[in-house]
Amino acid sequence: MAAAHGSGSIRTVAFTTPPNYAARLAHLLTLKGFKPLSAPTLIVQPTPSTVAALKPHISPPSLDLFSAVAFPSRTAVAAFSSAAADVPHPLLSPHGDVFTVAALGKDSELIDDSFVQKLCPNPDRLRILVPLTATPNALVQSLGDGRGRRVLCPVPLVVGLVEPPVVPHFLRDLEAKHWVPVRVNAYETRWAGPGCAEKVVEKIEDGALDAIVFTSTAEVEGLLKSFKEFGLDWETAKRTCPKMLVAAHGPITAAGAQMLGVGVDLVSSQFGSFQGVVDALHTEILRLS
Fold first, then answer.
1. Around Cβ 56, how many Cβ atoms within 10 Å?
2. Tens digit of pLDDT for each residue in 142-166?
3. Rounded-to-integer distance, Cα 40 and Cα 264, Å
4. What is the C-alpha end-to-end distance of the chain, expressed in Å?
5. I need a labelling partner for 140 at 20 to 30 A (CA). Which of 9, 25, 153, 200 fits?
6. How far apart are CA 104 and CA 134, in angstroms?
7. pLDDT at 180
8. How many CB atoms neighbour CB 61 within 10 A?
9. φ, ψ for residue 67 (rounded to 5)?
10. Which residues belong to any copy of the Tetrapyrrole biosynthesis uroporphyrinogen III synthase domain (predicted)?
11. How far apart are CA 31 and CA 21, in angstroms?
């Protein structure tokens, strides 16, 4: 494997991924020879209030009123499991119409045997659905025609930032396919605070940041909001550190970054996992070396 070195030094790559995803991305960057710099701009986690909001929808027999649950993120699956830990099992009765559990890419790894056993004693009643393309719209399309049925949607409550359009569009697309989406704020996406970009700012001011990776639109907004605390804006950052590449994990993140005024240099075409954006960045840096 070719290491991501340039001018005799290891390339430093910052990423703004929340702490619960950061170790996975840092490991992949290290394997490609990068020096990872974790600078989370968001805190993404269930809270007592979000768990309390979810429990009534999954406590027996409430979940039997739904035909599907659609998880638009890994944290949504984790939040569901966290809430389910304190309610009677199984959540679904063993008899009834097929119940669909839909998730994206590697998020589906959390829907393991333990998850299924807690959900329903009859695994034949369950359909696990993972679309080939890891986007919320692909999730909607794979669910097909809802025919007026209800789908549980555990989504984030965004705190301290403007809610990106991803979730509203997801719910709108479900309605367009004749589903009745029931939104539940199952976890919080919260700004990590004024100083969250400090390490990134220091590297930029030293001209020592080779790339930055964004894995969601909210991360970009969180970074820009923190930049203001340091008297910095994106245009100034790029002028100060012109070599800095911007990599986006998939087209939705790229479009969101562009809307916030952050130009994107490369977008991963494989975005079912972080491997795609890391591979794309590695290829581009080797090309430029």
1. 11
2. 999 999 999 999 999 999 999 999 9
3. 19
4. 15
5. 25
6. 5
7. 98
8. 9
9. -105, -10
10. 24-271
11. 16
ω before 164 within 30° of 0 (cis)? Answer: no
* Contact (CB, 8 A) for 227 and 195: no
Give CA–CA dist 200/135, Å, rounded.
28
Residue 6 pLDDT > 50, yes or no? no
Residue 93 burial (CB count, 10 A)? 15
- Using pLDDT thresholds of 50, 70 and 90, give the confidence band for residue 15: very high
| Tokens, residue 146 | 């809802």
For residue 242, the tally of other CB atoms under 10 A from its CB is 8
Measured between alpha carbons, how far is 118 from 84 in angstroms, rounded to an integer?
8
Burial, 138: exposed, middle or buried (Cβ in 10 Å; 0-12, 13-18, 19+)?
A: middle
Residue with token string 């638009």: 72
Contacts of 185 (CB under 8 A, 6+ apart): 50, 53, 155, 156, 157
Neighbours of 124 (CB within 10 A): 8
What was the pLDDT predicted at 4? 57
Q: Which domains does the chain have, with CATH numbers?
A: 5-41+194-288 (3.40.50.10090), 45-191 (3.40.50.10090)
